[in-house]
Amino acid sequence: MLSINYKRSPAIGKEDILYENRTTRIMKPAFKVILDRESKSLIVFICGTCSIKDTFTDALCTPVSFDHFICSQHEKHNIVSGYAHQGMVSAAGWIRKQCIIVLLEAHNRYPHFKIKIVGHSLSGGTAALLTYKPREIQQFSSTTCVTFGPASCMTLDLAEFGKSFITSIINGEAVKSCTEVYWMPKTIVGSWKMKNAKALHISK
Length: 204
What we know:
Structural class: alpha/beta
CATH superfamily: Alpha/Beta hydrolase fold, catalytic domain
CATH topology: Rossmann fold
Number of domains: 1
CATH architecture: 3-Layer(aba) Sandwich
Helix content: 25-40%
Mean pLDDT: 79
C-alpha cells in the first residue's frame, strides 16, 4: 500500500492538496492530487491495495480493449492499441474523470508544472494505464509515471510504447511484477521488469 504522510513534508501544505478521495470502492481506489511546488509538479498519488474492495478490482481481470490516441486538428489519430486488465482500466478511467478538471485548473495557474502519476502494486498498474489518457490532451502530453512493484496489466505493444514515459521500480523479486499471469492472453505482459517501460531493479 502506498502511504504518504503529507503533514510531515514541510514542502506540502493543506492548500497544496488539490483533490482527495479517501474512500475505497470497487474500481474506485483512494487517491490524491498534490501540488508540489518544490519539484514543480502536479502529482496524482494512487493508493495500493488497502481493502477487500481493492482486491475485487484486482480480481476483475478479463482483458478489455485499450487504445491510446492523440487529437490533432479535431481528428483522432490512433497511436497504439491492445488489451489491458479490466479492473485497472475501469479504475484508471474513474480517476481520470474525477481529477481532470482539477488538473486543468491547476495547469492554467501553473502552466510550467508537469503531471506525474505514482502508484504501487495494484495501483501501479492503474497508474500506468491512467498515464496514457492525460497524454492524449495537448496540455498534458508530457505526463509521466513512476510505479513501484506494479501488477502486470497490459499487452506488449502498449507496454513497449510506454517505455519513454513510464518508469517501473522493482524491489528484489516482487511477485506481482515478476510472475507470469496465466489468466490473461499470452500477449499480456507477464513481467514488467523485463517488458514494461523503463525498469529499475533494486536487489535486497
